[in-house]
Amino acid sequence: MCAQETVADKSEVLTVTALTRRIKRALETGIGAVWVEGEVSNVRQPASGHYYFTIKDENAQISAVLFRSSQRDLTFKLVDGLQVRAQGDVSVYERSGSYQVIVRRLEESGQGALQARFEALKKRLHDEGLFDPARKQPLPLLPQHVGVVTSPTGAAIRDILNVLSRRFPNIHLLIAPAMVQGPGAAEQIAAGIDYLNRRGGLEVLIVGRGGGSLEDLWCFNEEIVARAIAASTIPVISAVGHEIDFTISDFVADLRAPTPSAAAELVVGCKDAFTERLGVLRQGLVRTLRESMLRVRHRLAAAEQSYVFREPRNLVQQHMQRLDRAEMRMGHAMSGQTTRARQRALNAGTALGHVMERRRERARARLDRVGSQLRMLSPLAVLERGYSMTTGADGGVLNSASDVKKGDRLTTRLGKGAVVSVADTIEKEDGDANG
User: Fold this and answer.
1) Beta 236-240 vs 255-256: how paired, if at all?
2) Of 269, 292, 326, at which residue does a domain stop?
3) Residue 71 needs a FRET pair 20 to 30 A away by CA distance; which of 79, 257, 283, 297 works?
4) DSSP state letters, 212-272
5) Coil, strand or helix: which one is 391?
6) Domain match, 246 and 119 both
7) Backbone angles phi, psi at 99, to 5 degrees
């Protein structure tokens, strides 16, 4: 009786398919969604793009499948030996009758592994100098051409466009579309940065996305993105996640913005703030110019009051007046002396006049004698007595026949006139002649 009670009723015999489906339903409703942690092995990815693998620990293993539609959040390459945490639904693959986990989300085991990778890369790039403030480029004051590397459908680009259109709607914006999470995202972001640099004409770049988990933001922790930012000749603003999120891109970029909206504000600033600042600068400039003009006017006024600059000819006229006065003093002195001499002469009387007359006569006689002596001593007087004076071609007086050569041009000065000749025969003192 007991044995009969433990045997199932034959009327309930199930097909394999029915049993498998019952097991499947029991697993899915009884266990449902789970998190399972273990080591990845036997990874396969056929042409469909789905991942098939095994999750195991030291005592057991379970099959798993990660369909292509669930891979957009995958931030690492799935390889054998990787420690992972998988979230999914326990189910049964009916064809083989094996149970499996249909994975919806896959991450490296714990935040510790990702954080260790983050810190290792951060230290290496820091040691290379990629975080050095000295290599960071300043942002332009008010750029007109801005490039953005982000998802064209994400919240980040909407926030950026909202800020730019509100503050400076005429700014030129160029978007390099890129995935911002999942496999291949890092490569697309790096390619977008490189493309915008090669294209040229841009003054600043914004690179980023909205918030998310560490896994969601992981592409901005990849080395390829960090090096693309470091190689950019255009200043780069990193705008990844929320204010509390930090990525490798933030450390390499020329400036970090806590959010994409804040990045847009850093790029263009506030129009009202610029207008106010320009007003302050204008007032300062006008004040400085006015002060400079007042100083110049004061200097010009002082120069106009200067005696020299008021009448530039005064200096010359003063010298002319001094010369005139000196001349007049000399004239007065000479006139006074002449008058006094005349008065003394008149007072001296006729006797003094005779004395002066005799003195004049004696003086005149002396002058005549001296003049006669001078005339006698004059070369012209000698010439008048029949002598002559001969000079050579150079104008020098010839004293010796030795100074003359045949053919020399000679000038002989007579008492009246001169004779020009050419030496033909030269007789020297010893009587010899050259002819």
Assistant:
1) parallel
2) 269
3) 257
4) --TTTTGGGGSHHHHHHHHH-SS-EEEEESSTT---HHHHHSSEE-SSHHHHHHHHH--HH
5) strand
6) yes
7) -90, 155
- Helix orientation angle between 260-268 and 155-167, rounded to the nearest 10 degrees: 30
| Residue 419 in domain | yes
Burial 180-191 (b: 16+ CB within 10 A, else e): bbbbebbbbbbe
Q: Give the CATH number of the domain where residue 230 resides.
A: 3.40.50.261
Closest CA to 173 of 190, 160, 191, 186: 160
Does residue 327 sit within a domain? no
The pair phi, psi for residue 342, each rounded to 5°, is -65, -40
Is 78 in a helix, a strand, or coil?
coil
**Shared domain check, 289 and 227:** no
Band the pLDDT of 179: cuts 50, 70, 90: very high
Do 203 and 258 belong together in one domain?
A: yes
**Residues 118, 254 within the same domain:** yes
- The answer as to whether 9 is a domain residue is no
Tens digit of pLDDT for each residue in 239-283? 998 877 789 999 999 999 999 999 998 888 755 667 777 888 888
Co-location of 242 and 298 in the same domain: no
Q: Work out whether the CA dihedral 113, 186, 130, 136 comes out positive or negative.
A: negative
Question: Residue 430 has what pLDDT?
Answer: 59
Query: What range defines the domain where residue 353 resides?
Result: 346-377
Among the ranges given (72-81, 196-205, 307-316, 318-327), the one the predictor scored with the smallest mean pLDDT: 307-316
Residues 6+ apart with CB under 8 A from 262: 239
| Closest to 123 measured CA to CA, from 11, 234, 238, 226 | 226
Sign of the CA dihedral with 253 first, then 255, 258, and 262 last: negative
78 within 8 A of 43, measured Cβ to Cβ: yes
Please, what is the average pLDDT of the chain?
A: 81
The pLDDT value recorded for residue 1 is 46
Q: Give CA–CA dist 177/75, Å, rounded.
A: 18
Q: Is residue 79 part of a domain?
A: yes
Do 90 and 227 fall within a single domain? Answer: no
What would the mean pLDDT of 218-231 be, rounded to a whole number?
A: 94
Of 74, 108, 142, the residue that ends a domain is 108
Contact 100, 62 (CB under 8 A): yes
What CATH number has the domain bearing residue 61?
A: 2.40.50.140
118 and 104 in a single domain? The answer is no
Tell me if residue 142 falls in helix, strand or coil.
coil
Q: Check whether residue 256 and residue 391 sit in a common domain.
A: no
